[in-house]
Amino acid sequence: MLIKMQVDSGDIGELQVNVVDSNNIPIKDARVIIRRPRQIGDEQQNQMQQIEELNTDASGQTQSVDLNTPPLAYSLDENNDIQPYANYDVEVDAPGYETENIENVEILAKELAIQNVKMRQVEGNEQENINIPPHTLYYEYPAKIPEDDIKDVSEPGEIVLSRVVIPEYVVVHDGTPSSNARDYYVTYKDYIKNVASSEIYATWPQATLEANILAIMSFTLNRVYTEWYRNKGKDFTITSSTAYDQKWINGRNIFESISLVVDNIFDQYLSLPGVRQPILTQYCDGRRVTCPNWLSQWGSCNLGEQGYSTLEIIRNYYGDEMYINTAEQISGIPASWPGYNLDIGASGQKVQQMQEQLDTIANVYTNIPRVTADGIYGEGTQASVKAFQKIFDLPQTGIVDFATWYKISQIYVGITRIAEGIPR
Q1: 300-310 burial, b if ≥16 CB within 10 A, otherwise e?
Q2: What phi and psi, each to the nearest 5 degrees, are found at residue 242?
Q3: What is the separation, in whole angstroms, between the first and last Cα of the chain?
Q4: What's the pLDDT tens digit per position in 16-29?
């Protein structure tokens, strides 16, 4: 096990805290306190240093704040033994809600960390604090138990989906498959962002992030497509155990660079010719554990720094026949992306559908200007789209591209409770 160290003389990262209630409605004027955790050798808990006190705006968000981190180079060097990220504690309180405490939020150099907080109304229940454990590339977790990358689903009684579908939710069992652990219902995109933020460093090259996220998504969709755990009599989709699946951490922060990649490619996965199911793309860190024919996380970082493309990185590990495929269907959305960007001058049913959803969102997120659902993409619609993109950490282009379309759909579904039967 490595010795945890905090480094004060380094770089700067950013943190933004987003606060909603149990119905995903933003909470205005929540108080957010950011503290530096007690350092090794500190004798008294009161030596914890308060860094910032902030209040959320009408969108339930704080401004982003600069925080000290170790040098950027630490997270790019596989031979570095010093913790490459800083930890901070976040406390959130608002009248009528339980105080929420998140310990050890991870802040990386030159990256925006996003801490989402869902507050619970005061009910007299025991407070549940979140303590984010160390990153998988820094701490020693159980190594992945090898499996076949293509599952035999021809046996009688096997449950297999007829086509590859991006699920609206996955059910995460927070422990090993046989443990008596809690199950969490998590939206698919939020699950992927969480795993990627737990498994790789957001500071890595863009192609490296994309290659690793594709491996994470393909692994997940194989579990979904083959109904792997349900065939074993379980009521969940996947576990949080690194020995069996991928590291997922309840309540952890995510990173903007990872979030943007997921939003842009979340309907993709890895395929082989003649194989219908997504490939179970296993991987390892490549430093403590070596894994021939699997993706090496640190090795993929090095390849990205050498200028390898996303597909070149993937094929370097999984073979030249591996290709990037697209799912046939995305669950839980009112209307699918039209296949082209919506911008000034666009018109028609798809524009009107988007406007109707965006106007519903503007009822809740009041910093977004209201939209007239007339099917014509004018300057008013563009202004509303830009405001939406700002709130939900997307590039503020005013253009409804793939990522913006599905983010609007996701938020609209959450607000209107279309998936009302899903526990939250």
Answers
A1: bbbbbeeebeb
A2: -70, -20
A3: 36
A4: 999 999 888 999 99
Three-point CA angle 171, 176, 179, nearest 5°: 95
Mapped onto helix, strand or coil, the DSSP state of residue 155 is: coil
Architecture of domain 11-131: Sandwich (2.60)
Rounded to an integer, what distance in angstroms lies between the CA atom of residue 26 and that of residue 211? 33
Q: Phi and psi at residue 265, in whole multiples of 5°?
A: -130, 20
Strands 130-131 and 100-107: parallel
Distance of CA 2 to CAs 141, 181, 187, 198, 296, Å?
A: 12, 27, 33, 17, 20
Closest CA to 113 of 84, 91, 88: 88
Contact 297, 199 (CB under 8 A): yes
Q: For residue 351, which of 326, 328, 372 has the smallest C-alpha distance?
A: 372
Under 8 Å CB-to-CB from 394, ≥6 apart: which residues?
A: 260, 263, 388, 403, 404, 407
Report the pLDDT value the prediction gives residue 40, as an integer from 0 to 100: 46
Output phi, psi for 63, to 5 deg.
-65, 160
- Residues forming a β-bridge with 117: 19
- Taking residue 141's Cβ as centre, other Cβ atoms within 10 Å add up to 18
To which residue do tokens 């138990």 refer?
145
Number of residues assigned to the chain: 424
CB atoms within 10 A of CB 3: 8
Render 290-308 in DSSP notation, one character per residue: --TTSEEHHHHHHHHHTT-
Name the token pair of 67: 């925080």
Phi, psi (deg, nearest 5) at residue 347? -155, 165
Distance CA 295, CA 272 (A): 16
| CA 108 – CA 132 distance, rounded (Å) | 15
Residue 171: what residue type?
V
Q: Determine the residue type at 377.
A: Y
Residue 391: strand, helix, or coil: helix
Q: Per-domain residue ranges for the chain?
A: 11-131, 165-330, 349-416
Specify the amino acid at residue 307: G
In the prediction, which pLDDT does 125 show?
Answer: 61
Q: Residue ranges of the chain with pLDDT lower than 70?
A: 1-9, 38-48, 124-127, 154-161, 417-424
